[in-house]
Design brief:
- The chain has 351 residues and is α+β, with helices and mostly antiparallel strands.
- The chain has three domains: 20-28 and 37-159, Alpha-Beta Plaits (2-Layer Sandwich); 175-241 and 322-349, 2-Layer Sandwich (Sulfite Reductase Hemoprotein, domain 1); 245-318, Alpha-Beta Plaits.
- It has eleven helices and 15 strands.
- It has a five-stranded mixed beta sheet with strand order 7-8-9-14-15.
- The structure holds protoporphyrin IX containing FE (HEM) (2 copies) and iron/sulfur cluster (2 copies).
- One iron/sulfur cluster (SF4) is lined by residues 177-179, 183, 185-186, 219-221, 223-225, 238.
- One protoporphyrin IX containing FE is lined by residues 63, 65, 67, 83, 99, 131, 134-136, 138, 140, 142.
């Protein structure tokens, strides 16, 4: 039996998408059962109270979280985001409900052993609710109390080789795409660069040095899987200087329908016969491609490396061989002003 009635939240479960409300209810139930018999360090019904306070916010049309307050661990000016509820009597479980940012590894590779350790720690000392991963890139652990913070940090730093991420006016935890580990489009080793700069700027990551947050993000190619172009003050985006490599036989196979376009993505629906003119040539933003007499040509000097043609026909078209990255500065997506594009500072640099 739920501690609080949540008719408004319940409606959200009826939509077509997986619902965070169902997830939270599941977690609330898990904590209530506490099968492992953990000595839970924050209230057992924390998730129930989280659902309760959110329901109240929906009813009142305004938040019942107070904004911030500085909490953290000794020596660090970031990594923990303080949250307090303005209805602590009604919802004592979430009277404190701080978020912990945990630095993710480059490329987000984990061992199951590590993940188990992290989840066990968070079940024990936090709400059990995680966000893997936040828009910032970090592992986000949502909801714990002030006395738990040092304990969590001690466990992470002593037994898990794990550091906190950035928050506030710090350098934020740098984030990269999976890059050369899995992706043939990667024009440089995003993980290496991300890892190196993370270590280089440890101090800026942990102690607020700027008037506002600052983000680096690393994308191996202009597909921008970590959206560096829109979401970081300094974006490193893979690119190439020479020509797109064309495999003429494979182009024919796409045109003839032997190879599925877009690597078979969207294939669950019948889109009709592949039309290279309409789906590739006509959509090239710079109009620099031609398909004449069954032959594809590209005026590479006009190509802006938008990746469209390569994404549609990955077996026929490949990025060039002289690869490196472009560096852009100045983009950000501040909450009040909305997304702002960066400016291209360094068009090409070998990495
Ligand atoms: C007064 C209440 C709150 C305020 C003002 C607030 C505001 C913010 C802000 C400014 C950020 C940082 C965005 C950035 O990195 O640029 C953030 C991150 C986040 N907040 Fe809150 N928040 C509040 C309550 C909550 C609550 C109650 C939850 C969860 C139940 C929550 C979950 C998160 C998560 C998961 C992130 C990290 C997102 C990411 O890195 O992608 N916040 N919040
Ligand atoms: C009309 C309502 C909403 C709007 C307009 C909205 C808008 C956005 C936008 C623009 C982002 C992406 C930020 C970025 O990637 O740079 C975002 C991310 C996020 N939103 Fe919302 N949001 C809404 C409702 C919600 C609700 C109801 C929740 C949870 C209860 C939520 C939780 C999150 C979280 C956790 C992220 C980070 C996702 C990640 O891990 O990358 N949002 N939201
Ligand atoms: S940004 Fe490019 S290189 Fe990185 S994972 Fe995405 S497609 Fe691959
Ligand atoms: S990468 Fe983009 S701009 Fe370059 S040829 Fe292909 S579609 Fe045109």
């Amino acid at each position: 039996m739920a501690k609080h009635k949540t008719p408004l939240l319940d409606q959200l479960e009826t939509g077509p998408w997986p619902s965070f409300v169902s997830d939270l209810k599941q977690e609330a139930e898990k904590r209530a059962k506490n099968k492992k018999g953990l000595e839970l360090q924050i209230p057992q019904d924390v998730v129930e109270d989280l659902l309760g306070v959110l329901e109240l916010s929906y009813k009142h049309g305004r938040t019942h979280w107070k904004h911030g307050g500085i909490v953290g661990v000794f020596g660090y000016g970031g990594g923990v985001i303080g949250r307090y509820c303005d209805q602590p009597t009604m919802f004592p479980g979430v009277a404190h409900f701080h978020t912990v940012r945990v630095a993710q590894p480059a490329g987000k590779f984990y061992s199951t052993e590590y993940l188990r350790q992290l989840c066990n720690l968070w079940d024990f000392r936090g709400s059990g609710i995680t966000n893997m991963h936040g828009s910032t890139g970090d592992i986000i652990l949502i909801g714990t109390t002030t006395p738990q913070l040092e304990e969590i940090y001690f466990e992470m730093s002593h037994n898990m080789d794990q550091d906190l991420g950035g928050s506030g006016s710090n350098l934020r935890t740098p984030a990269d795409c999976i890059g050369q580990a899995r992706c043939e489009y990667a024009c440089y080793d995003t993980q290496a660069l991300c890892h190196n700069l993370t270590l280089e700027y440890q101090d800026e990551l942990h102690r607020p040095a700027f008037p506002y947050k600052f983000k680096f993000k690393f994308d191996g190619c202009p597909n921008c899987c970590v959206a560096s172009i829109a979401r970081s003050d300094m974006s490193f985006i893979g690119t190439w200087k020479d020509d797109i490599r064309i495999d003429a036989e494979a182009v024919k196979a796409y045109v003839g329908g032997e190879i599925k376009p877009n690597a078979g993505a969207h294939a669950g629906r019948d889109w009709g016969k592949f039309d290279i003119q309409k789906e590739v040539i006509g959509l090239c933003p710079t109009g620099c491609m031609k398909y004449e007499d069954n032959k594809l040509t590209i005026n590479n000097r006009e190509c802006t490396r938008c990746m469209h043609c390569i994404n549609v026909m990955p077996r026929a078209l490949r990025i060039g061989k002289q690869t490196g990255c472009s560096i852009l500065v100045g983009a950000k997506a501040p909450i009040l002003d909305g997304a702002q594009m960066g400016s291209l500072l360094v068009p090409f640099i070998e990495v």
